[in-house]
Amino acid sequence: MYSQGVAQYYDLFADAAEPGSLPEATFVRALLPHGSSVLDIGAGTGTLAFALAADGYKVTALEPDVEMYAALLVRLAGRADLRQQLTPLPKPLGFDLGERFDACLALAVLHLLDAPARAKMFQYAAAHLRDGGRCVVEVPVESPLREELAHQLKAERTIGATRFQHYYSMRRTPGGRWCTTWEFLAWRHQESLDRRTREFDWKPSSLDELTTLATQAGLRVDETFGGFDRSAYVEGQSRILLAVLGRAHR
């Protein structure tokens, strides 16, 4: 379980109430025809899945983390209009869905996996992709533009008499890895109500690694971008790599 107590704060600071302006959803809408079927691998609390389902896509949201999945279900309970469009599944990679999709999405997932799980993710996506379908993978890559960040306030929300704060920091660790720390605080006046801290240890990827993993899974890299705004991916400069994959020609 990777959320470790922070899932209940995730949507509070993710502006989940504004799905129409979500850059990820805009990118997917430009890529897929309306009504396409989508497998969202590592859906989290469902922000992207909800935005796509509201647009008429048929979305299967795969999320193995117990806390994230619980938050997703709570959100879904208040959206009766999406219950025919969105299928939530509390299952990990390896769960055979018995169907294929027009698109498989793995956004902000790959960098949190170890090497065997990275290969497994590509194989899983390939096994559930229809002929002519697209796989979209987002991953941070090593870049001189990425800097360490000291502990700082990222966002603050006030609900009634309770004030919530989200602190954030990022530092390099040995072996080319990074550690991102999230801290969530809840206050009533000057009284501390709750404090949750979560560290994410992760490793940047590269276009070469992604291409190798795709090839091993029977996929090919069709397009690369430096962000959901479809900016160009520049090797050694872009901080993230957004790749659109298709089935390799037989």
* CATH class group of the largest domain: Alpha Beta
Unreliable stretches covering 5 or more consecutive residues: none
Strand percentage lies at: 35-45%
Helix content: 10-25%
Q: Name the CATH superfamily assignment of the largest domain.
A: Vaccinia Virus protein VP39
- Can you write the helix and strand succession as a string? HHEHEHEEHEEEEEHEE
| CATH-derived topology of the largest domain | Rossmann fold
Indicate the structural class. Answer: alpha/beta
Can you give the mean pLDDT? 92
The count of domains is 2
C-alpha geometry = globular
| Main β sheet profile | 7 strands, mixed
In spatial order, strands of the major sheet run 3-2-1-4-5-11-10
Query: How many β-strand runs?
Result: 11
Radius of gyration: 18 Å
Q: Can you count the helices?
A: 6
The assigned CATH architecture of the largest domain is 3-Layer(aba) Sandwich
For the record, give the distance between the C-alpha atoms at the N and C termini, rounded to a whole number: 38 Å
